[in-house]
Write a structure and sequence with these properties.
By secondary structure, the protein is of the alpha/beta class. The strands form three sheets. A six-stranded parallel β-sheet has the order 3-2-1-4-5-6, sandwiched between helices. Strand 4, helix 5 and strand 5 form a beta-alpha-beta unit. It starts with a helix and ends with a helix.
Length: 332
């Protein structure tokens, strides 16, 4: 059955007692938002799922409400009144809203349109659920997360422990690509990914794979480039039909589950893009210890190989430009 299949796919979902929690998905009607809402709805730690999009979400909410889970699905529409109701009492807000990439586009090409969308939604979050944990999926994440941070800062409610860029898809891809290459089970692997969430700013730490695997220099170079360009691989394969929606929904649901489990007191380690001082750039993705209030500890990135050190030096200027662009937009 579908319920069993979803449960098996999300083997990391907690099976412990439910914790009454409201999660709001902003952009629930989109290519990422619909499968993401389905997967979040299946999480046993969820009690209330609120949906929002610029278009009517009643059909999506009705569809999801027929699934035999313990969560209640509410519905919202466009407009300030509906958005307020959607966000009120939310513990977690997930934002996949925005335009997808098309062939030939970079994530930066999406900036102007998606930056305005994220800024508007961030203002609503800062007003209606200022203490919620906000997980940003909308690209370009390297810039949209600084926009959200700046909006919350301007509103006087910024808590850097609670604003996240969802980079889980990079770690999911890293595990899958390594597993396929070496003929091992992807669910048994741990592959840290640091930096940002686009192109060269994505740095998989293949020297730190656990359980330890032997990779040649050629394999490391090939895997790194594929992980960095995996989003473009999907965009090109869909030939104008969209970007990575299903895999991003899967990764977004995994990260939401991490926040849900951390919210009930389970110590959870997850990679995410947050305000950070472990490098010279203001925002950086690395392993984090999560707790009820969000980030509990930045765990750093350990000892890098010479190849990874070179890649880190190369990505920082690009990541800094992305961050500056977001901060400047957020201050407008």
């Amino acid at each position: 059955m579908l319920r069993v299949a979803i449960g098996l796919a999300f083997r990391s979902f907690s099976t412990c007692s439910r914790h009454s929690t409201k999660v709001s998905v902003l952009g629930a009607g989109g290519g990422i938002g619909q499968p993401l809402s389905l997967l979040i709805c299946s999480n046993p730690l969820l009690s209330n799922l609120a949906l929002y999009d610029v278009k009517d979400t009643r059909g999506i909410a009705c569809d999801l409400s027929h699934i035999n889970t313990n969560s209640r699905v509410s519905l919202c529409y466009s407009g300030s009144e509906e958005l307020e109701e959607c966000l009120k009492d939310s513990e977690i807000v997930v934002i996949p809203a925005g335009l997808p990439r098309k062939p030939g586009m970079t994530r930066d090409d999406l900036f102007n349109t998606n930056a305005e969308i994220v800024q508007s939604l961030a203002k609503a979050c800062a007003k209606y659920c200022p203490t919620a944990k906000v997980a940003v999926i909308t690209n370009p994440v390297n810039s949209t997360v600084p926009i959200v941070a700046e909006v919350f800062e301007s509103a006087g409610v910024y808590d850097p422990r609670k604003i996240f860029g969802v980079c889980t898809l990079d770690t999911v891809r890293a595990k899958k690509f390594v597993a396929d290459l070496k003929g091992v089970n992807a669910t048994t692997l741990h592959v840290p990914v640091i930096g940002g969430h686009s192109g060269i700013t994505i740095l998989p730490l293949l020297s730190q794979i656990t359980p330890k695997l032997s990779l040649s220099s050629e394999e490391i170079c090939s895997l790194t480039e594929r992980i960095q360009n995996a989003g473009t691989e999907v965009v090109n394969a869909k030939a104008g039909g969209g970007s990575a929606t299903l895999s991003m929904a899967y990764a977004g649901a995994l990260f939401t589950d991490a926040l849900l489990r951390a919210g009930k007191g389970d110590p959870v380690v997850e990679c995410a893009y947050v305000e950070s001082n472990i490098t010279e750039v203001k925002f950086f993705s690395s392993s984090l210890l999560l707790g009820p209030e969000g980030v509990t500890e930045h765990l750093g990135f350990g000892t890098l190989s010479a190849y990874e050190e070179d890649k880190l030096r190369a990505l920082l200027p690009e990541l800094d430009r992305n961050i500056t662009k977001g901060l400047q937009f957020g201050k407008q």
